[in-house]
Specification:
About 70% of the residues lie in helices and about 0% in strands.
Length: about 500
């Protein structure tokens, strides 16, 4: 694939801006409800926490089962139609929570929420890939991650101001905001002009729409070794990273480090602020560097963050413990700014156009499965009292993420890994020639009138230098020349120096 250069001042094309606006509205509605759903079900619907957590697990399984169908539908019917359908279906989740009368309604509502969110995100990522040039896709995914966290953080702030645990109507208002956010987002995407990038149109001539049913062609996706290693890395990030962020850090901080709930809230607010404030700088830092290296760095940040969490347990109940907990979430958030845009950019590069929806949905499905299985580690280790063994496991999990990210590099090209292709007229210079020309003037491109009549000695090869010194009428074959390489290099430097003088 040819990589085109984009203007540094352009953050995203107009179509991508419309998609990101819709995503930001959705994230705001999502943020207003996600922290308070469990509280609503327990306080006003009188459902035990055991049943509520079971409903959350079933919602994760529902998202896992819907992901393959969603990926096939995106490739077959188009990402825009699938997104609008998922957004309209997602509205049914908050609506059912408002009018629910039986506990099983919570299972259905949370399943609709999880399936709708997963499908909408896969469709949105596919559309962002279609309208963005390969050279700026990583930049667009960085903006997506930043705006999503900003929307969730701002929505959680507004939700905290509106909710009143004594009034059920305040929860109803939050659910209506969530449903309205998805409805507005679907309306925005319905009117966005999704004009594919020029390189996407060129691919239409070489790729064809897959034939068969919605669940076919998954074998070719699973047969891609690069995608298998990407999914391995994503699973480790979800199970030993995000699942522990949402479940392990709160339990350890409250019970072992003995910090207050207020400190825990400050820690997560600080994490959101780190992502929003640092994502643009990280985005510019990542351009032109290996994406797999950025994913590996997330493993380093994750291991360091959980090491800080373990240190907070050594000094419980004080300001030092609170500072370490806040540092834990902040360091983890800084790592988040590295892996999210780079992983999505790699998937969009390695995926054929006609299978892109399946590739992105497989990543979503892997992450959903990791988020469903990761909390089991927390429950088993904390129930057994193995809290310090838990810290060791999650720190080693960061090392496993580092290892799996490096395994991806062996199965993708340097361009897919984020490096710009070399120019067609690039000619590598030998190391000894670089050493001999370091003190020369900066290279310039001479005009035809400035071209020397006789080539300078620097342009001559070793065989030409040796042939000039040979006896006239004889032929020198470099392979049979008995001078060792040290003598040849010394002779070449002498000739080059004489040519400059």
């Amino acid at each position: 694939m040819t990589q085109t250069d984009a203007e540094p001042s352009v953050l995203a094309p107009p179509a991508a801006r419309g998609l990101l606006l819709a995503m930001g509205v959705n994230a705001f509605g999502y943020g207003t409800t996600i922290p308070f759903i469990l509280l609503y079900l327990n306080t006003h619907q009188h459902i035990s926490f055991g049943v509520v957590t079971l409903a959350v697990s079933c919602a994760g399984i529902a998202a896992l089962l819907v992901a393959p169908v969603a990926g096939s539908a995106i490739d077959h019917f188009g990402a825009r139609g699938v997104y609008i359908a998922a957004a309209l279906a997602k509205i049914g989740g908050p609506a059912l929570l408002i009018v629910m009368q039986h506990p099983w309604h919570a299972f259905v509502a949370l399943a609709i929420n999880a399936a709708g969110d997963g499908t909408a995100r896969s469709a949105l990522s596919t559309m962002l890939t279609q309208v963005s040039a390969p050279s700026i896709r990583q930049r667009v995914f960085s903006l997506q991650f930043m705006l999503f966290n900003a929307g969730v953080g701002f929505g959680g702030l507004i939700g905290g101001l509106l909710v009143d645990t004594g009034r059920q109507s305040s929860f109803t208002a939050l659910f209506l905001i969530d449903a309205l956010g998805f409805l507005i987002g679907a309306a925005i995407i319905a009117f966005v002009k999704l004009r594919p990038h020029a390189e996407e149109e060129d691919q239409d001539e070489d790729t064809q729409e897959p034939s068969g049913g919605l669940l076919t062609h998954w074998r070719s996706v699973l047969a891609d070794p690069a995608m298998r290693w990407v999914c391995c890395c994503v699973f480790l990030i979800g199970a030993l990273g995000y699942a522990q962020l949402n479940n392990g850090i709160p339990l350890f901080a409250l019970n072992i480090a003995e910090v207050s709930p207020r400190t825990l809230g400050i820690a997560f607010a600080a994490a959101t602020a780190v992502i929003v404030l640092s994502q643009l700088g990280t985005m510019r830092l990542l351009e032109g560097h290996r994406r797999t290296r950025a994913m590996a760095c997330f493993g380093v940040f994750s291991a360091l963050a959980f090491a800080f969490l373990g240190a907070s347990g050594l000094v419980p109940g004080g300001a030092v413990a609170a500072t370490l907990v806040v540092a834990t979430t902040s360091i983890f958030a800084l790592g988040e700014t590295l892996w999210w845009p780079t992983t999505n950019a790699i998937i969009s590069e390695i995926a054929p156009k006609h299978l892109r929806g399946r590739y992105i949905s497989l990543s979503t499905m892997t992450f959903s499965g990791a988020m469903a299985t990761g909390p089991l580690l927390v429950g088993v280790m904390f129930d057994a009292g193995l809290t310090w063994a838990y810290i060791a496991i999650v720190v080693l999990g960061g090392c496993a993420i580092f290892w799996s990210a490096h395994k991806i590099r062996a199965h993708i090209s340097s361009v897919q890994d984020g490096l710009k292709p070399l120019p067609l007229n690039f000619v590598p210079t030998p190391v000894w020639a670089k050493a001999s020309t370091q003190e020369s003037a900066p290279p310039t491109v001479p005009t035809p009138s400035e071209q020397p009549a006789k080539p300078v000695e620097e342009s001559r090869s070793l065989s030409e230098i040796l042939a000039r010194d040979a006896v006239p009428g004889t032929h020198v074959e470099p392979s049979r020349h008995r001078l060792n390489m040290r003598q040849i290099r010394r002779k070449a430097r002498v000739r080059v120096g004489a040519g400059r003088r």
